[in-house]
Design a protein that fits this description.
The protein has 156 residues and is α/β, with parallel strands linked by helices. It has 5 helices and 4 strands, in the order αβαβαβαβα. Strand 2, helix 3 and strand 3 (105-111) form a beta-alpha-beta unit.
Length: 156
């Protein structure tokens, strides 16, 4: 499923710096409507794991949804997460200040020059509750194969 919208539709619920107006509606839709619908339609009794991913701004929403609903979503993929600029690490500070410590697995794909993604990974590695944080660095302009994320999230 793909979501489309303006940048202000996505973000972190706790972020004071964000301008996301509809993050709660998006979170409620994913966890209250989409998740139960998929669970009802899939012919599996119990999911071993559930993963969510996002690209750019929606990577923050995917992170936020998994962070606040870790009982439902245990893995999150972040493709080129919009963490700000190298001079503005307020999103990282917001995440660092969160009290909740959910047990999540994180997968981040970013350009080699993206120092904020590297800082984010280091921050997540320091948390005892994060069981795994994988950072895939690539040359600028090279796309990370979505299949690579799926193989990580759902190994045989």
């Amino acid at each position: 499923m793909a979501f489309d919208g303006k940048n202000e539709d996505y973000g972190l619920e706790e972020a004071e710096i964000k301008e996301a107006k509809q993050y709660k509606q998006f979170n409620d839709f994913v966890t209250g409507e989409l998740y139960p619908f998929v669970k009802k339609k899939v012919v599996v009794r119990k999911f071993n794991s559930v993963a969510i991913c996002g690209f750019g701004e929606t990577a923050l929403s995917a992170f936020d949804i998994s962070w606040n609903n870790d009982e439902k979503v245990s893995m999150v993929g972040m493709f080129d997460p919009a963490l700000g600029t190298s001079g503005d690490n307020s999103i990282l500070q917001t995440i660092e200040g969160l009290r909740k410590r959910p047990n999540l697995k994180l997968w981040i794909a970013a350009d080699m020059a993206d120092s904020l993604s590297l800082s984010f990974k280091k921050m997540m590695d320091s948390r005892k509750s994060i069981s795994e944080c994988t950072l895939i660095l690539r040359n600028a302009g090279n796309d990370t194969n979505f299949a690579e994320f799926l193989l990580w999230a759902f190994p045989k």
